[in-house]
């Protein structure tokens, strides 16, 4: 018996495999495999809980705060804040009008915060960098000192600041006992550290004490990637310690320092816990940071609309400074790489 000849499809007769489109013709759609689709969607599914929490914790309250800044929200509308009268930009005009008490107080608080942030960030970076450079040398007890330097950063903020508040007490605080009673500095009369102009320096001391270990940790980690051969070669060429720091250390950690300074700036400018725990609800005028000032405007005077407008202005200021800082630092890095 002879079998019947097998009939081939037209496209197979043309020389192609079954299912292949002829040359120049439309190609069939590419079928995505289910396994590949699952692998592509998996990262987004893993990020979804974090995005939902971010939306719930940060974005929703921020949007509500922006809406509240356009209303005359006082204690009379706390039960149903949506019934508060719509005032438009009146709260913003009141906050930026320096000829009126509210705007004048906000401007004074803003300038105090700028000075405080400049000093705190500068001292934190200076102390952290100096300690990190010092810790690069091998000596006995280096591990113990590293752990000791990180203690202020590891302590809870409230416990640390409360301890400092007791230390700054006028009559029985350790600071006055050491300065006046033991060293005889400043006379026999004890100093008010938590009142008057001295409150600014007390707040700055606490801020630097709890902030510089973070700078130390970041710079020390960055210095681990700097080859020791560079320092040895520089020493053979006659470079001193200061020239090595200037020519090797600082350029090597330049990118890390840019991020570090930005993070320290945002943390310090927004710091609320330190002045609130140190001074309470009403900070002295010399230490009236903008975070505690907004709190007083909202929860002490019960004018939540004006306080929300101040918060939005603070947010815009920080966004503007951050964008400008990133623009100029990125531009400077590109110019340096082009050379």
TrEMBL record:
High-level lineage: Bacteria, Bacillati, Actinomycetota, Actinomycetes, Kitasatosporales
Regions that span the bilayer: 42-67, 110-135, 147-167, 200-223, 248-269, 308-328
Signal peptide span: none
Family note: Belongs to the binding-protein-dependent transport system permease family.
GO biological process: transmembrane transport
GO annotation, cellular component aspect: plasma membrane
Record's compositionally biased regions (Low complexity): 9-24
Superkingdom in the source lineage: Bacteria
Keywords: Cell membrane, Membrane, Transmembrane, Transmembrane helix, Transport
Residue segments, region Disordered: 1-34
Membrane topology summary: Multi-pass membrane protein
InterPro entries: ABC_transporter_permease, MetI-like, MetI-like_sf
Gene3D superfamilies: MetI-like
Domain ABC transmembrane type-1: 110-325
Keyword Signal: no
Protein name per UniProt: ABC transporter permease
Protein location: Cell membrane
């Amino acid at each position: 018996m002879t079998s019947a000849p097998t009939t081939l499809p037209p496209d197979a007769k043309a020389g192609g495999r079954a299912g292949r489109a002829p040359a120049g013709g439309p190609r069939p759609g590419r079928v995505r495999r289910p396994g590949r689709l699952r692998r592509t969607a998996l990262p987004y599914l893993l990020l979804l809980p974090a995005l939902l929490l971010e939306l719930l914790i940060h974005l929703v309250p921020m949007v509500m705060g922006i809406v509240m800044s356009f209303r005359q929200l006082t204690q009379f509308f706390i039960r149903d804040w949506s019934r508060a009268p719509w005032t438009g930009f009146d709260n913003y005009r009141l906050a930026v009008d320096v000829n009126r008490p509210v705007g004048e107080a906000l401007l004074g608080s803003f300038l105090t915060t700028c000075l405080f942030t400049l000093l705190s960030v500068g001292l934190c970076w200076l102390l952290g960098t100096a300690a990190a450079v010092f810790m690069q040398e091998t000596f006995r007890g280096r591990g113990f000192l590293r752990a000791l330097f990180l203690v202020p950063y590891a302590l809870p903020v409230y416990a640390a600041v409360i301890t400092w508040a007791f230390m700054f007490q006028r009559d029985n605080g350790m600071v006055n006992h050491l300065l006046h009673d033991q060293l005889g500095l400043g006379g026999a009369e004890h100093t008010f550290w938590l009142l008057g102009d001295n409150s600014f320096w007390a707040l700055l001391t606490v801020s630097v004490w709890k902030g510089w270990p973070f700078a130390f940790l970041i710079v020390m980690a960055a210095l681990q990637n700097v080859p020791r051969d560079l320092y040895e070669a520089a020493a053979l060429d006659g470079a001193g310690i200061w020239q090595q720091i200037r020519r090797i250390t600082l350029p090597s950690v330049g990118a890390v320092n840019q991020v570090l300074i930005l993070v320290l700036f945002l943390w310090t400018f927004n710091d609320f816990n330190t002045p609130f725990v140190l001074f309470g609800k009403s900070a002295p005028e010399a230490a009236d940071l903008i975070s505690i000032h907004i709190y007083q405007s909202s929860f002490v005077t019960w004018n939540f609309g004006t306080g929300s407008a101040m918060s939005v202005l603070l947010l815009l200021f920080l966004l503007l400074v951050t964008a400008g800082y990133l623009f100029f630092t990125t531009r400077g890095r590109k110019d340096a790489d082009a050379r």
